[in-house]
Amino acid sequence: MKSKILLPLLLFFLVIIVTKGTSQNIYSLERVQIVGSFNGYTTTPYGTDYRTTTYRTVSVATGNPTDGRGQWATTINVAATGGDVQPVNMLGGGGAGGGFLFISGPTATPYNNKWVFNGVMQATLDGVSTAVYGGTTDMGLNMATAGYYTFVMNDYGYSASPNTQFYVGRTDSVPANITVTSQKINSDNSVFVFVSLDRKPSDQENFYLRYVTGGSDFSGAVTTSIIKGQSSDPNDTTHLTGSKTTGYFKIPAPSTSTVVKYYVFSSTRSLIDLNNASELAKSISVLRYDDNNHANYNASVVLPINLQFFTGTSNNEAISLNWKTNAEINANNFNIEKLANNSTWNTIGTVAAQNIGGSSYTFIDNAPDNGSNTYRLKLVDKDGTSNYSAAITINAQVTSGLKLYPTLVNSNSINIVFNEQKAGKATIKLTALNGKVLQQNTVNVNDGNMVLQHTLPLLTKGNYVVTVSTAKSQKTFTIVVQ
Description:
It comes from Parasediminibacterium paludis. This is T9SS type A sorting domain-containing protein. The protein is mainly beta. Helix content is 6%, strand content 48%. The chain contains three helices and 35 strands. The protein has helices at residues 2-20, 271-276, 279-284, and strands at residues 33-36, 54-57, 70-78, 88-90, 100-104, 113-116, 127-133, 141-143, 147-154, 164-171, 178-185, 191-197, 206-213, 225-228, 230-231, 246-251, 258-267, 289-290, 297-301, 305-315, 318-328, 331-340, 344-352, 360-365, 371-381, 386-388, 392-396, 402-405, 408-409, 413-421, 424-432, 437-445, 448-455, 462-469, 474-481. An eight-stranded antiparallel sheet has the order 1-5-6-7-10-9-3-2. Strands 13, 14, 17, 18 and 19 form a five-stranded antiparallel sheet that branches. Strands 22, 23, 25, 26 and 27 form a five-stranded antiparallel sheet that branches. It starts with a helix and ends with a strand. Mean pLDDT is 86; it is low at 1-24.
C-alpha cells in the first residue's frame, strides 16, 4: 500500500522538477513582465499586452541558452495620448519618480521573482545594463521622449549573480522587420547578402550583419564580427536608413576556404559600440532580426588554392622555392614570379596544380642574382581567377659567371651569359627531365664577358634542363617551354 502512495508522490515531484527545468532558465509558463511607475506597477492584464514579454532565441535552434541568445523581449509605445503608457523619466529607487523592474511568477503572485539594481541608478538607454536577481532597488530609465521602447532581457534564469543583462532601444516608430532575400559569393570570394525591410525605418534604426567563420557559432566562445548594411545600389555609400527598404551587406573575403555563418538584425547601438561589446551584449542588442528560423544563414566560400607556406633556400648558386597547400579545388597552376629592378614582376616558371590538398611543390631558380632575390606565387584557378601569395626575399651568393635567360621560353631561343670567362670552348647540352639528351653543342667563348644567343630545337611544352660547361665552371638551368 505504501509503495502505491510513494509512486504517485515521486512522479509528482519529478514532474515539478522537469517542468521548472533543470537549467537556470526562467520558467516559461511564468513569463517575464515589465512593470513600473509608467503603468502603476500593475501586472494585469497578464500575458495579453505590452507588459508581458515574449521568449525568443537568436541564432540558436535548440535549447535555452544563458549566453544572451535566449531572450525575453517586448516593445512599449510611449506617447502622450494613444500609446501604451505616457512619457516619464523614472529615477529608480521607488518613491518620487518611481522606477521599473522585470518580474515573473504565476498569475496570483506575479512578483515571485524580480530583477532590479542593488542601488539607485539609471539604466542605459540605447545600451546594455546589468540587473541582479533578487536585488533591492527598482531601476531608473529616462522614457520622457515619446517613441517605441524595445526591452530585451537575457534569460540567465534565477541566478543571484549579476549576469542578467538587458538592452533598451528607442525608435520613433515600430521597428522594421528585416529579411534576407538572397546571397551571392563574388569572384573575389567576398559575399553579398541582400535584404529587405517591411517598412521605412526610423532614423535610430541601424541594420547589421553578424558573422563568424570556421564552423564556430554565436555562443560567445569566439569573437564575432559585425558589419553595417548599405543601400541596394553598390555604388551608393549611404547606409540602409531613411527611405531605403532594400539593401545589402558585403562580408569580406576570408583568407582560407571556410563556411561563413551569419544573421541580420537591427539595433539602436552604433557599429563601434557593438564591435567593442561583449559577445553576450552583441546578442541581446537586437530590435528585430532574421536568423533563418534560428539555424543561421551559411555561405560556403571555397578558395581555389589555400597555401600553408611558401619559402625558399639558397644552395649552390641556385634558389629552391618550396610551397605546400592546405586545399586545392578547381586549381589550375602556380606561376612563379620574380621582381626585377624593384618594380616589375616577371614570370620565370609555371607549375601545374595537383588539385589535392596537402600537395608539396618545388621550383628551382638556376639563375639568381647575386644578392637579394624576391619571389611570389600567382595562384590561378581553372576559371582564370587568381590571387597572390606574400612575397619572399632570398639572398644568394653567385660566384660563377654563367647565367641563362629567359627561363620561361616562348620562342626557340635562349641567351647564355658568360662573365669573367677565359677564351676557350663551352658545351651546351639540352636534356629532357628523364635524362634523354635532345641537343648538344660546342661553342667558342671569348675572353671576359659575352652573351650568346642559342637556338633550341623544336620542343613541346614542358620543362627541360640546360647544362652549360666551361673550363672554369659548370651550371644547370631549368627552362619552361610554353
